[in-house]
Amino acid sequence: MVNDLIIVGGGASGLCAAVYFKQKYPNSTVRILEALPRVGKKLALTGNGRCNITNKNINLSRYHGKDTEFCRYALDKYDVGFTKEFFEKIGVEIIFEEDKAYPSSFQASSVVDCLRFACDELGVITHTETPVTDIQISNGNYRVISNQMSFLSKNLIIATGGLAGGERLGCDGKMFNILKKADFKVAPQKPTIVQIKTETDIVKQLKGIKINAVAKLGSRSDFGEVLFCDYGLSGPAILQISREASYLDKPQITLDIIPDINFNELCELLTNRVNSLKERTLDEFFTGMLQKRVGQVLLKQIGCKLIEKVSTLDIKKIKALAAIMKKWEFAVTGTTGFSNAQATAGGLATKEFNNETMENKSTNNLYCIGEILDVDGDCGGFNLQWAWSSAFCAVDALRNV
Ligand SMILES: Cc1cc2nc3c(=O)[nH]c(=O)nc-3n(C[C@H](O)[C@H](O)[C@H](O)COP(=O)(O)OP(=O)(O)OC[C@H]3O[C@@H](n4cnc5c(N)ncnc54)[C@H](O)[C@@H]3O)c2cc1C
After folding, report:
1. Is there a domain that residue 333 lies in?
2. Exposed, middle or buried: residue 83 (CB in 10 Å: 0-12, 13-18, 19+)?
3. Domain co-membership, 205 together with 138
């Protein structure tokens, strides 16, 4: 039997494509071939289990890759409104927390459930524990091979994701090897939206402490929570700037832990504190202004002994303290890797695909969607929106149904 459509990968983009396809072509046959024992495993973990499903401010500046223009058509045509309507139709009510959109259940698993229910209701055939190991062309159709089985299809959508999350989430990279053998070009893949490893002498002393700071790395900066860990830095502001860690030579993160005032104002504030608190010992100098251990580590960094009196802080030391507080430097030694990353920078070269259809330019009726392509978005719902938009785009472009 020749199917109308086979979708390899039952993750975010694959499930979305299957449902949208059957809504459009109710009498057609579509199969999802998924390697893991269940579909949507990664989707069920998104947004800390809440699923940050999209963002009010979808625009190209939030996307990265060799050619971000590639995304424009799909993101513009299948925008947040289109996505919201699609999800509401299958039972997912969407609400916004500032710019970020979530299912109103705040349960990522419920998004997977609604996609699964829609697949069942519409007659999508799902094969789990079916890792695709080869793809061949046979009499103008695709022969998709898994274990001892093979499936024929007129159209093929590959939605196997990137490497983020690692093997436990089905992202083992094997599909890239299959496609590379067929001469598909792959831009080097790097983990992004990921924790950063740094030199550990300072961070280890502050392990477990969270502060708010402006974090900068290369051309990226973000204000938000930063978490000190024994291996380096984590927290939303760090994840947001982490992409640069894999691309810069000798990367360095800087933290501005007092972002509301400038260097001179900070010197003045510290001088006033010295004048008012001069009888205290230095270990209490920052009490009431900074997290206590953070203050103590800063003082030690400029060579002070904590048992000394606050009055020992002269203008030179005050300036040295203010300089670190405005630009606390952490040499980056790496990231915690794909198994901890939320997205993959790099992937299939987009120049080999039609941006209005997601179809491969040299292989008719073969489409690639979602994170497998060299497109990655910022943290905040941008990656899932790409998964949805590219899925809608490919399905609407199918000619051979
Ligand atoms: C912990 C975590 C939290 C995240 N939170 C958010 C968030 O809140 N908002 C957001 O926008 N993005 C988030 N992301 C990113 C987002 O989940 C991904 O960008 C998105 O899931 C990509 O969709 P996809 O369909 O391309 O790939 P995936 O969802 O990864 O699906 C790919 C599927 O293909 C299957 N597969 C792989 N190889 C084969 C094969 N050979 N044969 C058959 N099946 C195969 C896999 O098992 C998997 O089920 C998060 C990611 C992680 C890891």
Report:
1. no
2. buried
3. no
- Closest residue (by CA) to atom 21 of ligand 1? 12
* Protein residue closest via CA to atom 24 of ligand 1: 161
CA-closest residue to ligand 1 atom 19: 383
CATH of the domain at 387: 3.50.50.60
- pLDDT tens across 303-351, in order? 999 999 999 999 999 999 999 999 999 999 999 999 999 999 999 999 9
- 35 in contact with ligand 1, CB cutoff 6 A: yes
Residues 224 and 75 placed together within one structural domain of the fold? no
- Dihedral, 283, 287, 289, 291 alpha carbons, nearest 10: 80
Pair (159, 84) in one structural domain: yes
Task: Identify the bridge partners of residue 348 per DSSP, sorted by sequence position.
Answer: 186, 373
Give how many domains the chain has, as a whole number: 3
pLDDT digits (tens, 9 = 90+) for 23-44: 999 999 999 999 999 999 999 9
Task: Tell how strand 232-234 and strand 196-198 pair up.
Answer: antiparallel
- State which residues form the domain around 48: 2-190+343-397
**Residues 371 and 314 reside in one and the same domain:** no
Q: What is the largest CA-CA distance in the chain?
A: 88
Which residue type does 87 have?
F
How wide is the angle at C-alpha 115 spanned by C-alphas 341 and 382, nearest 5°?
Answer: 40
Helix-helix angle 292-301:315-326, to 10 degrees: 120
Span 6-30, average pLDDT = 98
| Ligand 1 contact via 270 beta carbon (within 6 Å) | no
Ligand 1 center to 89 CA (angstroms): 22
Q: Is 345 in the pocket of ligand 1 (CB under 6 A)?
A: no
> What pLDDT is recorded for position 120?
98
Boundary of a domain, candidates 241, 258, 275: 258
User: Can you read off the two tokens belonging to residue 363?
Assistant: 């292989």
